[in-house]
Amino acid sequence: MAACSPFHRTKELVMTQLRQRMSEDMQVRNLALNTQRSYLQQVSLFARYFGKSPDLLGREDIRTYQVYLTNEKKLAPGSIHTAIAALRFLYSVTLEWDWAPEEVLPLPKKPQKLPIVLGPEEVQQFLGCVLDVKHHAILTTCYAAGLRISEAVQLKPTDIDSQRMVVRVEQGKGQKDCYVMLSPKLLEILRTYWKVRRPETWLFPGDRAGEPITRDAVGHACAKARDRSGLSKPVTPHSLRHAFAVHLLEAGADVRTIQLLLGHRSLATTAHYLRIATNKVCATSSPFELLPRPAATLPPPAKPQYF
Question: Which positions fall inside the Tyr recombinase domain (predicted)?
């Protein structure tokens, strides 16, 4: 194996120092671990594309990279948002460039798409096809408590409070602790699961000792159950959270209550579910029904028959 040139060693050292500094900047700002990993990965891809350390690249290089992500990689706007957020942090915080990042790094407009939501019967059909007791318990929890998969995999047995009938979510999205509902039927399922598996540190342990189940493992189990169910709609762990919100809304729960249960920072985020709750939308009468009915028209008199 050929030895690296001094130039490559220097470039690698600079990149390593810059990576370390960016990592520390994110740590002192208490960014979520998943955000830190994602940002570092995005900056690494950016540097690899040009074969240079990011501190040697300028505005035109950034613009070229944005065009590449859009036209050649054909990434979805959400994925481009992540890449741009990482570069904004790098240049405005770590490198302390004196510029307006929102001008140099504009965000693409996201299309407003409505999620495809499972009906109550479809949720029941899907959960009935989750054969493994642990997978069935965690996916049922995602639906019954409206949890994100990142929150469900981090649950501990002590987070299930059967006295108050709540589930404690520790450091959920936005690094906030909160409580969500614990339905009696879910409690029964979790107790049955606990008697079979006897989890200790984590409520849903993974294959590696001392670690919780991974999101990928739950996603794989979800995909297998969806195939068994024969459902035509897409089903992911997050689909169950969507279904939780829509079914509550259609059952008469108010948007503010659902906001608290979902842990949304903004009520506007929760209000999007109003566009999906068909029972609410379709139960409202059209103004056409309020128009007066036209007077009945009499048929013309019949002509006499002579033959």
Answer: 113-286
Q: Report helix, strand or coil for 128.
A: coil
Q: Let me know if 8 is a catalytic residue.
A: no
Domain 6-104: CATH class, spelled out:
mainly alpha
Q: Cα(253)–Cα(55) distance, rounded to whole angstroms?
A: 52
Catalytic residue among 73, 228, 238, 272: 238
Q: pTM for the complete prediction?
A: 0.64
Q: What is the CA radius of gyration of the chain?
A: 27
Q: Which of 21, 73, 81, 173 is catalytic?
A: 173
Local structure of residue 168 (DSSP, 8 states): E
Note the pLDDT tens digit of each residue in 107-133. 766 666 667 888 899 999 999 999 999
The residue annotated as part of the active site, out of 19, 134, 148, 242, is 148
81 catalytic per annotation: no
CATH of 120-281, picked from 1.10.443.10, 1.20.120.1760, 3.40.50.2300, 3.30.1490.100, is: 1.10.443.10
